Amino acid sequence: MSKSDHEMGGLPTTLLTRLQALINLIKEECDIDALPGVVMPHLIDLFNPDIACYYVKDNDKRDYRQAASFPDTFWQRQEIQETFSRRPVVGGSIGKAIESKKMVVVNNPTEAEAKGEYVPFDPSITSEIAIPILAQRRLSTEEGVVALILLSRRERNEFTQEECQLVNIAGSIVNTIYNNCLAKELKERRIEFLASITESQSLDLDSTFERFLTALSELVPSKFTSLWLYNELDNSLVIRSFYPAQIGEEVISFESLDRRVMKCSECLSGEVVNSKKPKVFTRIDASDKFSNPSFARQFGLEWFVSVPVLDADGKTLGVINLCPVGDPQELDEEANESLVRYISPLANIIRLAYLLFEEDLLIAYDDFFKVMLEFQDQQASWDSLAKMIRDRMKCAGCSIFLAEADGLLYLKGTTGLIGNPPYKAVVYEPSQGLTGTAFKQGDPIIYYSEAKEQYSGTHISKFREHTSGKSKSIILVQILDRAGHPIGVIRCNNKEETPARHVGRFTKEDVLQLQKIAQIVASVHSKTSWIREREKERERSLNSLHHELLSPLEGISQHIEWLEYHLDVWKSPEEWDKDRVLLKLSDMKQNSKLIDVVVTSLGRFDEKIRIKKRDVSLIQLLDTCRAFIYNEAARKGIKIRVDKIYVSRMRGDELQLMRVFYNLLRNAVKYSDPKEQYKLIDIYISAKELDHFVLSFSDNGIGIVKGEEERIFEMYERGSNAAKYFPEGTGLGLAFCRSIMKKHGGQISVDPNSLSKPTTFHLRFPRWR
Amino acid sequence: MIRVMYVDDEADSVKMESKFDLMKKKGIEVIPVTRVPDVFPQLERMSDSIDLIILDIIMPPEEYYSLDDTNGGTSTGINLLKEIRDRYKSIPIIIVSVRRLEAADEEIETTYDVADYLEKPVSAFDVVNAIKRVLRNKQ
Questions:
Q1: What pLDDT digit, counting tens, does each position of A667-693 carry?
Q2: Are A107 and A114 in contact (CB under 8 A)?
Q3: Interface of A with B (CB under 8 A)
Q4: From the candidates A632, A725, A726, which should be mutated to test the interface with B, based on the most B CB atoms within 10 A?
Q5: Which of chain A's termini has less CB crowding within 10 Å, N or C?
Q6: How far off is chain A from B137, nearest CA to CA, in Å?
Q7: Residue B10 has what pLDDT?
Q8: Between chains, do A557 and B22 touch, taking CB under 8 Å as contact?
Q9: Nearest Cα to Cα of residue A617 among A658, A586, A589
Q10: Which positions in chain B touch A550 (Cβ < 8 Å)?
Q11: Contact B22 A720 (CB under 8 A)
Q12: DSSP per residue, A639-672
């Protein structure tokens, strides 16, 4: 360029046109990678150098590598390629430009070389200019030299001041173009990143994690990124996902890592769990606490940054370890904070996923319930339940243990690893083995085969015995009843290692989920056993009812048969055995009465009982009832004494009251103790209260078991003593009495002091005035 | 005279008296046993003179069996049946009960050689006919 080219006191028109072409590039959309090829022809056109090169920062190698060059004849020379296709960050004009972040002009190579500000790469070069391109680095907010343009001239005059100004202008235009492209690229990456995390709300956490790490690695270019979930239970970090799946030729799996479970106190990332702030760990090869040294060596990982995954409450859910491409010095505090911001959505994803799990569990309730009622065989029900839990927990095996009356844990249902028949009868003492310990200690247990020293002791060997040592990870939680007492244990073995890259390790969240499942199991168990119990009860009641009706009917038909026969045999009235005929008739009357009682007590008798209160004579009522039961009582040698009935009259429904009295009397006769020598039923009144009197029936029968004094008044409930000596019985009689008493404004109760013998029933009636 | 042991917790009731009275008139003497614990002492004394046993199924097990073993007393007779068969191989047994026949019961009947099964209510003449039929078949 010569001075003669100057026109109008400014730049020559040719130059202006060329500059304009460069400026036009600002508006063009262009990839950073394609930039050297786009801008270099313009610069060569503008400054006409003999040798030119565009170097870009190689973050991985920490130097600058050639991205575009001119002319090919020069650069294709082998010795030039070997020496100058890459440039170190220090030394020469390049080093100075990087350091000063300003353009460097070398017009006197010999002098500059002596000062170390020039590296001779061709002896004929007389002047050189290095233009730095500055941009924000990937991890830091500070600007750095991301690219460098080198223009050299041979045997020509030096770069004039004006030329230098023009180069400066061109340099800032290239800078603008570069930063435009960078901003666009960053924006796109951020959008992609945000999209990747918003679309990932699914139950499949592992694929969510995978997508997240992939997007994060795009945003912050990293050699290796791993997600470790924090396990509050044993203060450990467990790897859950990583990216990429392949480094170079090497396929990465969880097994590639030295450690997949790390105690927080024994690893570098553990510091981040507690401090809740990101931290850069440099020179990891020299640290004793670094957990994956051979993995890092193999893949050339020298430093990493640990970023905590914090939820809205500031709780640490996990840690993401990034090995970014570049220098650890590039990471400043601000950059760290932006990393935390990038990672924070992950906490929401995790939380949301667990919420979804919980919602999903509500549906599980129905499924569990159905499966528990589906099979007649309880074992099959429990096994199916275990299978459902296994599928939900995505693990290899599940076992459900329940404690029985002997205080031992019995394997109720199982699937997977230990589902072989010999293990069906596994019984644990409540402090033996992991299962026994989980039952006894209350806190859930999480066990990893890697961390076996944590759970050393007899129960581990016991455990190994049962599982042949196959389990890598186990969680155990208690099943609690409503009152919070342990009734059993659920155990899950081996989180699955699937192609979706499940880590094969349970984490705290799994434990929480299993605890929720345990709650459902407890509730389903109590409900289904209640239903089963009821069904049994109902069946028993129906059988009893059948018997209760058949028995008196049989009695009646028996007598009819007898009478028919004898009416035929007895030729004249004199032969009649009048007493026996009367006895039969009275028994028939009693039997029909029985049928009446049973029929009345069927169904919801509460609604059926209609009370018509009249003035009745208590003594008369009691006498009638006594007459009804007299034969049976006499046969059993039981005396009935009606004593001290000084309340002679009361208000009530004669028939219904008779049913109550008859019922109590009949019970007293029926449940009389066969071993008792002297049998007596005592009926008496006490009236200590002004407005009430109490009619009591006392007997020396078989008694009522303590704790059953309320239950016996419930429908279909019978005292256990009664059931023991007299299997028939509907369990309706006393419930029936209670209803009638209520309708009379009274109460029926068992004297608590008389639970063994004699048993006394009190009927409390309001006094009639 | 045919001698029959009638095991039923209601064997001493008035209604049963009618039945036994009629049975006697048809040539069958009934030895009523009302309590389970009395069954075997009674049998030991007179096993030689008893031609047949009639068993009720639902009976209070009292202290002789547990409630669990007898399904709450509803299968006391089955337990008795097994035990009688254990000790007395040849005495014919007729079961009388309200319980309907189930597959399991049928299996029990064949296993323990039950001669007949009568469903309650059963008249005196039905019992007499069954006894005579069983004893005839035995000869």
A1: 888 888 777 777 888 888 887 777 888
A2: no
A3: 540, 543, 546-547, 550-551, 553-559, 561-562, 565, 583-584, 587, 591, 631-632, 635, 674, 720, 723-728
A4: A725
A5: C
A6: 27
A7: 83
A8: no
A9: A658
A10: 98, 120-121
A11: no
A12: EEEE------EEEE-HHHHHHHHHHHHHHHHHTB
The residue among A539, A531, A516 whose CA lies nearest residue A373 is A531
Of the candidates A524, A493, A555, A473, the one whose C-alpha atom is nearest the C-alpha of residue A261 is A473
Helix, strand or coil for residue B49?
helix
Q: Residues near B87 by Cβ (< 8 Å), separated by ≥ 6?
A: B40, B43
Q: Tokens 């409930």 map to which residue?
A: A717
> With an 8 Å Cβ cutoff, are B60 and A725 in contact?
yes
Please tell me the distance in Å from B17's CA to the nearest CA on chain A: 9
Q: Which two tokens stand for residue A326?
A: 């570049």
Q: Given 3-state DSSP classes, what are the helix, strand and coil percentages for chain B, each rounded to the nearest 5?
A: 45, 20, 35
Burial class (CB in 10 A: 0-12, 13-18, 19+), A362: exposed
Q: What is the 3-state secondary structure (H, E, C) of A355-403?
A: HHHHHHHHHHHHHHHHHHHHCCCHHHHHHHHHHHHHHHHCEEEEEEEEE
Identity of the residue in B19, B70, B121 whose CB atom sits nearest the CB atom of A550 = B121
**Contact at 8 Å (CB) between A314 and A274?**
no
Phi, psi (deg, nearest 5) at residue A686: -130, 145
Q: Identify whether the C-beta of residue A284 lies closer than 8 Å to the C-beta of residue A302.
A: yes
Amino acid identity for residue A611 in this structure? I
A164-191 tens-digit pLDDT: 888 888 999 999 999 888 888 888 888 8
Please check the confidence at residue A402 and state whether its pLDDT lies above 80: yes
- Report the residue of B10, B13, B14 to disrupt the A interface, i.e. the one with the largest count of A CBs within 10 Å: B14
As a whole number of angstroms, the distance between CA A276 and CA B63 comes to 70
Instruction: Say if the Cβ atoms of A562 and B74 lie within 8 Å.
Output: no
- Rounded distance between C-alpha atoms, residue A427 and residue A417, angstroms: 17
Non-local (6+) Cβ contacts of A430 within 8 A are A403, A407, A408, A409, A436, A439, A440
Q: Which amino acid is at A400?
A: I
* CA A647/CA A689 separation, integer angstroms: 13
Residue of chain B whose alpha carbon sits nearest to that of A566: B22
Q: Tokens for A141?
A: 């907010």
pLDDT tens, position by position, A716-726: 677 777 766 66
Do the bridges between strand B116-119 and strand B93-97 make them parallel or antiparallel, or are there none, so unpaired?
parallel
Closest residue to A727, CB basis, from B25, B74, B121: B74
